[in-house]
Amino acid sequence: MSSSLSRFSTLLLFLHVALLIAPPTTQFFFLPLAKGSDLIQTTCKKTPHYNLCLSTLQSNPDSSNADVPGLALIASDALLANASDTLDYIHGLLKQSPEVHLQKALANCAELYIPIVKFSLPQAIEALRNGHFGFAKYGISDAAKEAEACEKGFGGVKSPLTDRNALVNDLSGVAVAILNLLKG
Ligand SMILES: *[C@@H]1O[C@H](CO)[C@@H](O)[C@H](O)[C@H]1NC(C)=O
């Protein structure tokens, strides 16, 4: 009895040490290996925007077979698609020669969105694919900061980008929250 108990506690100790010394990127293998809609729902519940998270992940058929890093990738791809679409929209508005205050604010937004569309987000997505979740978080949370700065730049002028900036901000929040479930 006492020897099986001590064998049991040795096993617990071993598991504990194994978890402590496991390389960070392998730790998610210890998470429940659930997939599909259960995993999507439990994951989205841990984000600040449940409905947006759900609709974003479910709109991509890959999500039904994805693990948590896969869901983070789907959310990040949706974020890049939205940021890129917003940048195109800004360029379209600039071509309509808006009045000077609006033009300045839009040009400021283009300057903020270009680096996230061309560099931060693609780099973050590449890092995510390689299991560097901590690094990925920088680029993805940067998107929210730039969207916020863009929106603030309108000052007294009515922003034509409010909904788009809010969506980029919220999608960034969803992707970061999913990344927070992972180590590395
Ligand atoms: C932006 O994200 C929303 C929510 O996930 C999605 O419905 C929409 O299709 C995305 N827009 C683009 C251009 O990808």
UniProtKB/TrEMBL annotation:
<dbReference type="Pfam" id="PF04043">
    <property type="entry name" value="PMEI"/>
</dbReference>
<protein>
    <recommendedName>
        <fullName>Pectinesterase inhibitor domain-containing protein</fullName>
    </recommendedName>
</protein>
<keyword id="KW-0732">Signal</keyword>
<dbReference type="InterPro" id="IPR052421">
    <property type="entry name" value="PCW_Enzyme_Inhibitor"/>
</dbReference>
<dbReference type="InterPro" id="IPR034087">
    <property type="entry name" value="C/VIF1"/>
</dbReference>
<keyword id="KW-1015">Disulfide bond</keyword>
<feature type="signal peptide">
    <location>
        <begin position="1"/>
        <end position="27"/>
    </location>
</feature>
<dbReference type="InterPro" id="IPR006501">
    <property type="entry name" value="Pectinesterase_inhib_dom"/>
</dbReference>
<comment type="similarity">
    <text>Belongs to the PMEI family.</text>
</comment>
<dbReference type="InterPro" id="IPR035513">
    <property type="entry name" value="Invertase/methylesterase_inhib"/>
</dbReference>
<dbReference type="GO" id="GO:0004857">
    <property type="term" value="F:enzyme inhibitor activity"/>
</dbReference>
<feature type="domain" description="Pectinesterase inhibitor">
    <location>
        <begin position="35"/>
        <end position="178"/>
    </location>
</feature>
